[in-house]
Amino acid sequence: xxxxxxxxxxxxxxxxxxxxxxxxxxxxxxxxxxxxxxxxxxxxxxxxxxxxxxxxxxxxxxxxxxxxxxxxxxxxxxxxxxxxxxxxxxxxxxxxxxxxxxxxxxxxxxxxxxxxxxxxxxxxxxxxxxxx
Length: 132
Hints:
Elements: H1 2-15, E1 29-32, E2 36-39, E3 44-54, E4 69-77, E5 83-89, E6 93-97, E7 100-108, E8 123-130
C-alpha cells in the first residue's frame, strides 16, 4: 500500500508540469496537434491546426534529401480575426502576426521507417516573441 501511495504521488506530480501554465514570451513551449495555448499576459492564442507535410528522412534510414515538415497554426489576439500561418522545418522558420514572431523549433515525433505517426501524436515546439 505504501508503494501504491508513492506511485500515485509521483504520477500526480508529473501532471503538474510547466506545460499546464500559460507559456511566456521568448520561452519555448510545446503545442500538441489540435490544441491551443495562450501566451501569458498577451491574450495571444495559438492553435496547432494542421500537419501539411512530413517528408523528413526517417532517423533509421539514409536519404539523399533531408525532407521537411510543414504545419499550420491559427492565431488570434483579443478577439481579432483568426489568422493562419504556415511554418516549415528544417531551419528556424519564423512567421509574423501583428507585432509578434512565432518560431517553429522542433516537430515531434521524428519519423522512423517502422511507424507512420498519426496527427494526434504530433507536438510542435514553438517560441513567440514581440517584435521591436
